Structure formats: structure tokens, C-alpha cells
Amino acid sequence: MYQNRSRKKKRASNVSQNFLFQTWLTKAMDDALNRELKSYYVFKKALSSLKKYPLILQSGKECRILEGFGPRLCDMLDEKLVNYARELGVTPSEALVLGNMFNSTNSADLDKTSQVSEHILNEI
Predict the structure, then answer these.
(1) Using an 8 Å Cβ cutoff, are 49 and 62 in contact?
(2) Per the domain annotation, does 3 fall within a domain?
(3) What is the rounded distance in angstroms from the CA atom of residue 51 to the CA atom of residue 40?
(4) Residue 77's pLDDT is what?
(5) Which end of the chain is less crowded, N or C, counting CB atoms within 10 A of the terminal residue's CB?
């Protein structure tokens, strides 16, 4: 016999695969809003698109496949990634992994990454 089964809609996880890029876009969006710049809407559209993307992006240039990302925005993310990696003393790909590891914790912990990165890299 047919049983009436209730089907629950699966929801997307709140855990972001691209936490580091989202953090930088959120900060840029907030800055644009505070300065009353029209670029706020560009950042908002790009951030919305990034939040919906389920895969990990390896660079800012890979963001070009998403809606709302142009060459300048992708270059900005790549530049921030290179500077962040230089700060940590690791390669950009390692810095991206370390930054995204903090997606389940407070975003304030992102600044503490440099203290933790050496310990984590030694374990790898």
C-alpha cells in the first residue's frame, strides 16, 4: 500500500566553502556602504552569487564563472590572497586552505591564523 511520506526539503549548509573570499567581500561591501558608494551593489551581487556556489574556488580568477564578478573584483581578491599568504609566510593556495578552515569559527579568529598556521603546516 501507498504510505503518505512527508518529504523534507534539503537545505543548503550554512558552512561556506569560500569563507575567506566571503569575508573580504563582506568587508568591502560594508566599507562601500559606509562611504555611500554605488560599488556596494556590485559587492552585494557578487557575495550573493558566491554564497550559492557549493565548490571551493582556488583563486580570485576562478570567481569569473560566477555572476557579478568582473576582472577588477577577481584581481582584488587575488591581490588580497597574495598579501594574506605573504603575511602568513605560505603559498596562496595554503593561505586559502587555512583561511577557509576558520569557517566554522568566529571570523575574528581569521586574524589569529598567522599564529596557528605554523603549527598546522608542521602537522601536514
Answers:
(1) no
(2) no
(3) 16
(4) 96
(5) N
Domain for residue 12, yes or no? no
pLDDT digits (tens, 9 = 90+) for 97-108: 998 887 645 545
Q: Indicate the pLDDT class of residue 114, thresholds 50, 70 and 90.
A: very low
CA distance 96 to 123: 17
Structural domain that includes position 96: 19-123
Domain membership flag for residue 24? yes
Q: What is the pTM of this model?
A: 0.72
% of residues, the chain, pLDDT over 90 = 63
CATH number for the domain spanning 67: value is: 1.10.150.110
Cβ contact 74:24 at 8 Å: no
- 24/102 Cα distance (integer angstroms): 14
How many structural domains compose the chain?
1
Residue 49 lies in a domain: yes
* Cα-Cα end-to-end distance for the chain: 54
